[in-house]
């Protein structure tokens, strides 16, 4: 009896880390800390730093019932300069009128957010990270390729967000803080949040939207009547509309590849319709509103000599600086700092997802604490963001489009597997086999269905870097053709695999 109490006491004193390294209801934590790190990891775990990696989350640990956090998480991070900068592309880069840009943003993003909202509601039912859910479609080892693609998607948005915020910080005192330094500031702050993990992300996003929302209202007031001075349509034909569709698809559908990471700690009985509603008002509404504001600013840049000059010198951040500082002086610089730092939670969320999907790409990394992998993710984002800042607008429109091209086939194949082959039945996803390559699907049909469509995607894509022969004549159809062709391939290939294996 005494020995049991002593062991129990030792377990408590070790911050629960020893129990994390032992089997728990059939699940095992992702790492066994070496003794040299044990003391540090013990303190981090007891301080609330999330150590759990990819393994499915037992029902008894799915206790997060603040369902509105889905709204605050996305709403708090998307009320920022990221969607505002993306919103400039339909008017400034593609040449649409402001009216047409608004119509495309509102309607197309509503269409493309629906698959993401549905996938969001699956995470509480399954208690799995998004990359683990994908294993039941792509298999254990082929899923590494899909996880790498998701990392690239997340890196694209994280990089664009960081550069957009850094432009604002650099515009506070032009020629004082270089954009490289601004990028470093944002990513260090983002790392601190993602270091703690899931709890910190949800907590901070509940409140960060308040100063950002006030700053945005001040920005709109300072911009004033200049927002009404919109440039006329400068392009003709279907091409600018198709390009805008690709941007909208990337904005909304891409989150379907990571959204489960932020609801997997919720219980199976979580209200699915309410979760979908919170996702709608947290993801679609603020992202679309910020894009509309961005489209208004983008359409007015070429009609305002001072805005146009500022844009040429420092991008969108310099334009925002011109709007605020010209009207408010030193207080305008303070508002500009708030807008620049509004991107911190976006960077934190993206680093968090990258650290999780990295383990899916390199499975042996599951023996290493997530917080250590996070350092590598932060380092990659710093390097890539600095490179992208050299030519931001062409980079922005091109990379957002590429993110959409990669997302379409992945989400399509996953939904076909869940809705058609698994009949939307959670019991068909056995958590006991999540790491068993022989029990999971081979993944061959899914991989073929995601790679094969790139023959069409490449020939029908239209970007600042490359335009395919189909796109030259029609416009950017890469997302549409890639998504549809992946579905057409997956149905027969997966049916053949099931017939051959005799099981899912």
TrEMBL record:
Q: Where are the transmembrane segments?
A: 67-86, 101-123, 144-163, 183-201, 208-227, 239-263, 275-303, 323-344, 371-393, 399-421
Q: Where is this region: Disordered?
A: 1-28
Which branch of life, at top level?
A: Eukaryota
Q: Which UniProt keywords apply?
A: Membrane, Transmembrane, Transmembrane helix, Transport
Entry's localization field: Membrane
InterPro entries registered for this protein in UniProt: Pur-cyt_permease, Pur-cyt_permease_Fcy2/21/22
- One Pfam family linked to the record: Transp_cyt_pur
Q: Is Metal-binding one of the keywords UniProt gives this record? A: no
Coarse class of the protein's main subcellular location: membrane
- Tagged with keyword Cytoplasm: no
Membrane topology category: Multi-pass membrane protein
Stretches with biased composition (Basic and acidic residues): 1-11
Q: Which family does it belong to?
A: Belongs to the purine-cytosine permease (2.A.39) family.
**Protein name in UniProt:** Permease for cytosine/purines, uracil, thiamine, allantoin-domain-containing protein
Q: Which organism is it from?
A: Aspergillus cavernicola
């Amino acid at each position: 009896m005494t020995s049991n109490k002593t062991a129990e006491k030792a377990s408590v004193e070790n911050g629960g880390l020893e129990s994390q390294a032992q089997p728990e209801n059939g699940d095992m934590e992702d790492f066994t800390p070496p003794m040299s790190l044990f003391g540090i990891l013990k303190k981090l775990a007891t301080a609330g730093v999330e150590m759990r990696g990819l393994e499915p989350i037992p029902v008894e640990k799915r206790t997060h019932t603040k369902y509105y956090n889905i709204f605050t998480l996305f709403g708090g991070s998307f009320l920022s300069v990221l969607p505002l900068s993306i919103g400039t592309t339909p008017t400034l880069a593609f040449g649409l009128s402001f009216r047409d840009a608004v119509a495309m943003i509102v309607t197309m993003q509503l269409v493309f957010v629906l698959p993401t909202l549905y996938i969001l509601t699956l995470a509480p039912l399954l208690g799995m990270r998004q990359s683990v859910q994908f294993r039941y479609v792509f298999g254990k080892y082929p899923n590494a390729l899909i996880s790498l693609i998701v990392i690239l998607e997340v890196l694209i948005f994280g990089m664009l967000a960081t550069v957009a915020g850094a432009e604002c910080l650099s515009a506070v005192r032009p020629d004082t803080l270089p954009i490289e330094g601004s990028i470093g500031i944002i990513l260090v702050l983002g790392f601190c949040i993602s270091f703690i993990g899931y709890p910190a992300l949800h907590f901070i996003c509940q409140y960060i939207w308040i100063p950002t929302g006030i700053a945005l209202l001040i920005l709109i007031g300072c911009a004033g009547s200049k927002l009404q001075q919109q440039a006329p349509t400068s392009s003709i034909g279907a091409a600018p509309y198709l390009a805008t569709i690709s941007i909208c698809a990337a904005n909304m559908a891409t989150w379907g590849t990571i959204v489960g990471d932020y609801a997997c700690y919720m219980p199976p009985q979580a209200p699915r319709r309410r979760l979908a509603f919170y996702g709608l008002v947290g993801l679609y509404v603020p992202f679309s509103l910020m894009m509309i504001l961005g489209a208004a600013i983008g359409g007015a840049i070429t009609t305002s000599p001072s805005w146009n000059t500022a844009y040429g010198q420092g991008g969108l951040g310099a334009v925002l600086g011109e709007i605020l500082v010209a009207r408010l002086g030193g207080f305008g610089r303070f508002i500009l700092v708030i807008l620049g730092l509004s991107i911190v939670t976006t960077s934190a969320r993206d680093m968090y997802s990258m650290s999780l999907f990295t383990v899916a790409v390199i499975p042996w990394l599951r023996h290493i604490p997530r917080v250590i992998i996070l350092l590598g993710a932060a380092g990659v984002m710093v390097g890539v963001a600095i490179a992208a800042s050299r030519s931001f607008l062409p980079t922005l429109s091109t990379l957002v489009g590429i993110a959409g091209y990669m997302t379409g086939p992945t989400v399509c194949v996953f939904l076909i597997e869940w809705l058609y082959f698994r009949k939307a039945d959670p019991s068909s996803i056995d958590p006991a086999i999540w790491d068993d390559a022989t029990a999971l699907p081979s993944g061959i049909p899914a991989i073929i269905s995601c790679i094969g469509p790139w023959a069409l995607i490449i020939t029908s894509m239209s970007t600042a870097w490359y335009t395919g022969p189909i796109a030259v004549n029609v416009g950017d159809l890469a997302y549409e053709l890639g998504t549809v062709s992946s579905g057409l391939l997956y149905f027969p290939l997966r049916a053949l695999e099931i017939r051959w294996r005799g099981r899912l």
